Amino acid sequence: MEYQIWLNGEFVERDKANVSLLDRGFRLGDVVFDTSRTFDGKVFRLREHLERFYRSLKYVRIDPHMTIEEMELTTLNVVEQNEDLRREYQDDYMITQIVSGGVGLRGDNPTIAVVIDPLGSPRWAPSYKSGANVVISKTRSYSSQSLDPKVKHYSRLNFVLAELEATDVDPQAIPLLLDLDGNVSESIGANFFIVSQGQLIVPKTESTL
Description:
about 210 residues, alpha+beta, 2 domains, six-stranded antiparallel β-sheet
């Protein structure tokens, strides 16, 4: 039995799924996504994540030709299709909705996928107890003057560069990105906050998702 994903209206084995090299998501980064996870097979706050996903789609002007209710049902169907494997491996999933501009004339034929990835043991799991080193990267986070930081998209080369800069200093370090004004923004796949003198300090909303 193999993990199943949903791609352009069909269930396919995850490791056999294919997207065209001509897809605008691959060639231009013209693609948005959103990710949530399951707890004991139940998707956490799915509707809230999908509402954010559809805000991202509206921002980049891609019509998925699916209502939010249809996307929700498809997501739940993907989880159900993989429930036997989840029970077998006693694991949970990250589940991601992805829509790109597709191939050819933009908007006519978007690529749509709902993908699962087993959580396993995150590489940063040891830091839950021992803590982790953080390196402030030279590369900055997105500016609202170029791309709205509240949009989840796959144009993430700045995150890649930030991670390389952090691991140049410490191979185990986690990068911390600032915005163009030097304010704390976020890490890669993680929010950042500080507890100082009994107060919770978080980044400005203008700089974060």
